[in-house]
Specification:
five-stranded mixed sheet; 5 strands; alpha+beta
Amino acid sequence: MTDDGLPEECRAENAIRVGQPPRDRAEALRKLVWILPWLIFLGAPVQDLTSGAHPAAVTAAGWLALVSFTAVYLTLVFRNMGRPITGRSVAVLVVFLGALAVVLGLTLGYAWIGLFVYVSVACGATLPIRAAYWAIGLNALAMVSVGLTESRFDWSLVLVVVLLGFAMTGVKQLVRTTVELRKARATVAQLAANEERLRLARDLHDLLGHSLSLITLKSELAGRMLPDHPGKAAQQVADIEQVSRQALVDVREAVTGYRRPRLAAEIAGAQVALTAAGIVADVPGEPDLDGVPEESEAALAWALREAVTNVVRHSGAGRCTVEVLKRHTLDGHMLELSVEDDGSGGSGKDPGNGLTGLTERLEKAGGTLEAGRAGRGFRLVARVPAGNPPAVGSGA
């Protein structure tokens, strides 16, 4: 899990960056797995060179040209260099690929027509969008010019070349858009955190500004009255004590309000935590909390946090299901939270400290807790009062 609440594999910087150098061995391996299968189009040129249809000098020159073509292509797409290639260098290398494909196709025969596929892919992966479109079109025209020299030219190859080039431009745009969206999401989260800190600062200022000013004023008055009017000074000191106690109560209430967890936020956090742990998460949407006391919601939110923590740390589960339901019982309306996994952990006979503290927290809110094995997994059910039901005949 990352600081911005995203699973590590979903972060923007962990996506495969098309047309950019890899940053570590893992990304280099992912790029190799993605690139190497496309080298299948080199099978025809290799077969042509090994068939013995050309003189030795031509065969040697063909191998040298094929190796050079493949190296330049991998350099463009893989970008495994000490520093990123400049735009001018990219253009020069793409032109070199196209020229080499034309020369080899005209001199060595139709078997080399597949090289235009790599030229198209290189154009789509490395050039800017507008330039890539023009380059792909020119590459297709060059392929047609070379192919028409052979009576067996397959026109469907032109469509393949064009579609692969455009597909690469689409992949590049998709990756770029995904990176930008995730960066924007991280920015929004940071701005929200900053706004929350500012709100806390404003609230604390509003709570303490008047009280501290009053305490300062009364302290000055007490200091002036102390020599000649000790009785009045004592009254000022008593007022200071009363104001400071009230300020302490206000701060505690404010901090308690900020620390109280919300069930909707905990459900979203549970989704992220379970997914990051490789557990299939089946969680509900935003629950209906109309009429539910804040104390009951907070207790249920703590229960969900404790349950998900146990699932992630101890269960070894592959799937976890979370449900939030309103039930009508003999004790009144109850809000029920159910967390069930298919793991083998959490089967101890004695409850842990977390479940013990959770039981006490729920009992304080008027709720109950049930936890134990259920089938092949473990199930936790927490219930809290959901408020008073509407009176019979009230029209509700």
